[in-house]
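User: Predict the complex with adenosine monophosphate.
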Amino acid sequence: MIITTTITQVQAQLSLARKKNKTIGFVPTMGALHEGHLSLLRRAKKENKICVLSIFVNPTQFGPTEDFTKYPREKKNDVLLAKKENIDIIFYPSEKLMYPPGYLTTVEIKNLSDVLCGRFRPGHFTGVATVVAKLLNILRPDTMYLGQKDAQQCVILKRLVQDLNFATKVFLCPTIREPDGLAMSSRNKYLSIAERKEASVLYRSLCLARDEIQHGIRNATRIRYLIEQNIRTLSHGKIDYVASVDAENLMPLNEIKGNVLLMVAARWGQTRLIDNIRITLK
Ligand code: AMP
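Assistant: Here is the predicted structure with adenosine monophosphate placed in the model:
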């Protein structure tokens, strides 16, 4: 496994691979790897000759009052885990490499970035889109693997790839969960024992809503109310939003039909958690 901090070195490795007609799978992350990240890496490894993992805690996707400085950085353990998965290359750029002095350019994906999580995290998705555009330009992978856990990010990055004509395919991987249903996240570490116990209420509430939909309920307001009530009754989580949207374009739905995302974001203290489930109705 090669760990590289320079663009020249990573590009030299990848052009060597391309010359040998080896396909390149790419998994962008902020590190502190868990089973969710590993599932993406395994998929990328399975489908490609070369698997590149990037680890970069991207400052531009954090708001001024968010957790950039305290975000977990676990390089040693990440390297061990990546080695175990037979990852070929870790690209580990510095902040200065990604945003050198004089850096001015951003990539903004209009509309999709201002709704849902974007309302509560202004600038977040512009930071994400910018750094991913840079990584795609640097690495030029065949396929990029993303987790459905960050559903809005998936829609936005698919848009980015399509709108800017990147020659990379996007593959979405299912959400990996703890045994009680909580979606795995590097931020789960921030939760106290009591908060951690409560946090699985997000997934349980989404499942409850899915059951209702399967029993024929189609009124989106009723479905959202059910989720909100369940979270409020069973936990101290403060809800940012509960939404039912079209899974392709994030437009709010009044009636549950087609490809639907039920999405939720809630806070326990300073810790903000998100979750979603996708439902397809014929
Ligand atoms: P992050 O390091 O949080 O930026 O995540 C890097 C990638 O891993 C993103 O594509 C996430 O959607 C994905 N990811 C994070 N948590 C999970 C999870 N529990 N299951 C599947 N994918 C995940």
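The first strand starts at residue 2 and ends at 4.
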